[in-house]
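Practice problem: predict the structure.
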Amino acid sequence: MKSQLRSYLHSLFTRDQVESSIAAELRSHIELRAEDLERTGLPPAEALRRARIEFGSLETHKAAIRQSLGLRLLDELRADLRYAARMLRRSPRFTTVAVASLALGISATTAMFSLIYSAILHPFPYAGADRIVNPSVTDEAHPPSPTWFALTPAQFDTFRQAKSIDSVLGFNFTGLQTTGSDLPEDVRATYVTSNASSFFGVPALLGHGIQSSDTARSSSQSNVVVLNYDFWKRKYDGDDKVVGKTLQLNHVDYTIIGIMPRRFTFTETVGLADVYIPWTASSPPWLFPWVKLKPGVSLTVANAEFQSYLNQFKKETPTHFPALFHVNVQPIAEPYVHRAGSTLALLFASVVLLLLIGCANCSVLLLARGEARQHELAIRSAIGASRFRIVRQLLIESLSISFAGAFIGIIASYWLARLPLQLMPDAFPGEAAIAINLPILAFSIGLALASGLLFGLAPALRISRPNVSQIIQTTASVIGNSASKRGLNLLIAGQIALTFVLLGAAGAAIPGFLKITTLHLGYDPHNVMAVGIPLKHDTKKNQPERAAYVNQLRDRVATVPGVLSVAVNSRGLPPSPPFGGIGTQAPFDIFGAKSQSEQLAGLSLVSPEYFATLKIPLLSGRLWDHTEDRRGDFVAVINQTLAQRYWPNGDAIGHQLRVPSLKDDGAPSSTASPQSGDWRQVIGVVADSSNDGLVRPVTPAIYVPYTTFMWDRTQLFIRTAGLPLASLHAVRSALSSVNPDQGTETSPAVLETVLQHQPIWAQQKLFSVLFSFFACLALVLSLVGVASTVSFAVARRTNEFGVRMALGAQRSHIVWIVTRTVFVTVAGGVIAGLLMNLALQKALQHWTPASVTAPWILASVTLLLIVSAAFACLLPAKRAADIDPIRTLRSQ
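Answer:
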């Protein structure tokens, strides 16, 4: 067996040499026989002639030898390929439509596979990324929200000894500022332990990453820093000579030792950083762990082992852990799978439908074209071609079409796969990069092969049985039978049904997205930006002094030309309304009322200008004045939902409530007013505004003066007359005029842009764009299939139509004869598509919650398909009605 395989491979790759050897061997046999004949007395010429006659045909012997070596099959395949290429070149219109049909389906399917592979399955460039996990803990009191846990350096050293751990990275976050320049800029810094380079395994673009020697250097000689790629581009304009230069942060000089590549962003799950600094004993005294498990260690085993470690750590530092918790280890890609997995699954299902429509369209074209080639196939069969040979020839043609479509599709998919990343950037890791690699190429080739067999096999089997005697005896096209008609009708009906599903999904997604874009938010997001103001914690400043400083910043920014109003929003780590969530959810008590369960409300700490800046109307009562604002105590404003839920007729003015979590607990990053957690009088009720996403109901909300509890992170909400970012430099200059060291966060949040990055907004936009795109492609392909079917019917019945018209048939009657069968088929496809759409409606509503389902959408899709199919029939039907009966009769 091995010797036969080696012989075959040798013959395959040394074909010319083998052919020469065969010819030489055959010639030697003839020459030897001629020499024997010469010895009997024959002249040399006569001996050579008789030797050739005795030996027989050289080509027959060569064919036998080639077949024994396995070369005959290669000869036949090469001949089939040349013949297929000639036939496809002779029918450019057919070839173009068929290749385009497959290219559209293959490109969309390959694009979705590329996106899933690159953005979900293998998004990270880290060494052993599939073993890196997020070790979080889940609070038993609030199970849906796993949180990070912090370890002291001693605990970190103990934790890294766990048997499940291959290596562990420690990191911490902080906010720094660039100093030594005109305007300070907030910098997101991440302290990382000395094993960062070996843990990630990602080489630096310039210089080198953080190593053990850098930790010793930072603690003894000088401070070093590694820059993120985007920060390097923004701060230094991509200067490749920046390594070795000095970057001043908080008046401390850091030597730049490296620039990380574009794909290294240390994942947004952890926190996007501008700079990376070696962690030393003088850094923040706690670390978050990022774990790389040993090969073969399951998440269950890791959870069990880590639980025992964290139970011990909780006894040492109880404030770092919830009262009751369990460890929740998950792969670093898990948040993105949860966020975008269902979206990509739905999109992948839609492109598979598009691919099936493309394959069905190619099958229709091949059947129509095959019927026109019946005479050719009958002649080939009559002169000895086997059915297998004819089927193989037709399959090679279909595979040639599919691989040409795959080649074009791979090129198009590279662009198409980037579209979801642009429409929904926050749903995918920043490290994700779309690239054509071996798995994607293998998928595309396999898809092309499967598609070629799918759309080519049935037509090849159908038209490889020509009625030889009938076809050869007549010059007219004797075409088709009831079985072939049924096959065509089923293909067309299937195309229409699948197209209906895609059009129905697009019809539901587009109104849903329009509904979101025109949603009444309860506030006006136009021309508003939030500028983050990091505040240095100074233990020497009390609450009034800190409030006076913030008010001074606000008043100075309010004088900037183009600024209409400015409000203060004090915030901690959770996001604050109206940005992507309900901010700090806090329990509250109502004076004199007994609650049966815990009462929660969204808590916002703002200045009184907040409502005017966001244009949230006051419904009753009043807002607090500046004296109450400076004091920060005793007053609160609530939204309409809270007032109506807890007081009859919403009459909440004059009642008292308390938020115990506002009480000063001595946290080092905050400053609270003396009576922050005491009872507060409700002095006003404002209108509801979206504070729990864009499609969920408004939650109860409490607004109190920002001076009640002041974090080190504060925002200024700024409404401008024009584009907000146009005033950003002037705002930063105004802040610097109050305090030269007062910086701002790197990226201000423009409210309209933030809304467009909301998951439901981005998801619905993605669905609207891609479903519309895929549905339009499916509609075009289906209409091409309908038009091809009508053209096929016209070609098959040309003689019949000529005779009918010669006998007096009207053109309208001919048009009706041509189109009635197609209309029945289209109607059947529409009904099947309608039933499929109704069956899938609940699933679509679950995966696209903002989509709109209404009878008028299905009615519109039905009308669109019927009208489009009618137009697709017009041209070939008109051609049938224009047949010259005299010319037709003469051709008989």
